[in-house]
Amino acid sequence: MENRQIIFQDLGKMDYQSAWDYQEKILQENVRKKSVSGNQEMGSPTQHYLLFVEHPPVYTLGKSGNKENVLMSDEELQANHIEFFHTNRGGDITFHGPEQIVGYPILDLEKFYTDIGKYLRNIEEVIILTMAEYGITGARSAGETGVWIEPGIPGKERKICAIGVRCSRWVTMHGFAFNVNTDLSYFNNIIPCGIVNKQVTSLQKELGRTLDMEEVKEKVKRNFEKVFEAELVSEVLL
C-alpha cells in the first residue's frame, strides 16, 4: 500500500467565501491532473489536503436544502452580521462560527476507496474517537449523517458534528463542523440540518468547561490519520 500523505493546513480565521474558493482551487487542480489524457499516470499525481478553519458567523445551505429552515429574514441576518451561502455540498442548513472546528478534507478517493458512504462513516468515526478521549460517547443516528449523543433516546438526541460533502471525479470537498466551544444560540435561528425537535450541543456544553481549541484540533488530526491510514504533513499557508 502506498504511503498516503495528506497536506494539513490550518487556515485560522477565514471568511466562508475565501475558504470555499480555496477548496475549489485545490479540487479543480486535482480534477485537471486526473483528466490529463484520461490517465492519471501520464500527468502529475493528485494531492490530498485536510484544511482546518474557523469562520465568522455564517449559515450554509446544502444544494438540496430548504431556505425555509433559516428562521431569519435577509434583513435580520445582515443586522446580526451573519452571512448566508447556498452551497454545492450535500445536506441542509447548518451554522459555522468561532470556536468550532470546521474541517475540509480534499481527498482523491480513488487512492482510498470509491465509496461515499464509507467516506462519510469514516469522518463520523474521526469525531467519535475524538469525543471518546473526553469521555463522551458519540454515535450515529440512522438515516442522519453526522455525529450525535444519545440519538436513540427521544427528547435527548443532540447533534455535535454536522457533515456535508461534495465529490467531483472522486475528489472531495466541504466536510465537517465540530462544535467545541461554539455559541449554540446561533442554532436557534435555523432548523439545523432540516431536522425538527432535536437539539444541538458542543463539547463545552457536555463537559461544563471551555476546551483548548488547539488541543482538540490535535486529537482530531491524530484520529484522522488513524481512520484514514494516512500521514498528515503540516504546511503553512503563505
Please tell me the overall pLDDT.
91
Q: Total number of β-strand segments?
A: 12
- Model regions low in confidence, pLDDT < 50 over at least 5 residues: none
Q: Determine Rg (CA atoms, Å).
A: 18 Å
Order of helices and strands: EHEEHEEEHEEEEEHHE
What's the structural domain tally? 1
Global structural class: alpha/beta
Tell me what you see in this structure.
The protein is an alpha/beta fold. It has one domain: BirA Bifunctional Protein, domain 2, CATH 3.30.930. It is 27% helix and 29% strand. It is built from 5 helices and 12 strands. The strands form 2 sheets. Strands 1, 2, 6, 7, 8, 9, 10, 11 and 12 form a 9-stranded mixed β-sheet that branches. Strands 4-3-5 form a 3-stranded mixed β-sheet, with no helix packed on it. α3 (116-132) crosses α5 (213-228). It is globular. The two termini are 32 Å apart. The model has no long low-confidence stretch (mean pLDDT 91).
Summarize the structure.
27% of the residues lie in helices and 29% in strands.
Element layout with pairings:
Layout: E1 5-13, H1 16-35, E2 48-54, E3 58-61, H2 74-79, E4 83-86, E5 93-96, E6 100-106, H3 116-132, E7 139-141, E8 144-149, E9 158-168, E10 171-179, E11 199-200, H4 203-207, H5 213-228, E12 231-234
Helix pairs in contact: 3-5
Features:
nine-stranded mixed sheet, three-stranded mixed sheet, BirA Bifunctional Protein, domain 2, alpha/beta, 238 residues
